[in-house]
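As a warm-up, study this chain.
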Amino acid sequence: MKERNEAIIYVHNSQTIKNMFLKVKPCDRDELRSYLYEILLEKPDRLVKAYSEGWLDFLIWRIIDNQYNSTTSPFKRKIKGYLEQEITSDIPDVRDEELVAEMWLS
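Now compare it with the structure written out below.
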């Protein structure tokens, strides 16, 4: 438990890891950072092993790269789904003739 907490503190304070997030769009950084912590805390054994053996930075980079750049990652689906829902909710159904007539007359 102590090593897990130390590893999380390291992730939070590491300038190297902070710099990794500069490769991510500013609007996605906080969401991806939260998702990263979620992934790390789901597998505490892997987190502790990576921290104690010195390859935690590499693990973090692989998670960020895989989640952010993959089109099929859970993170990308979550963000893409959210954006599609947000965008399409404002688009009127153009098959509604009354709505189209109202838009043209106003």
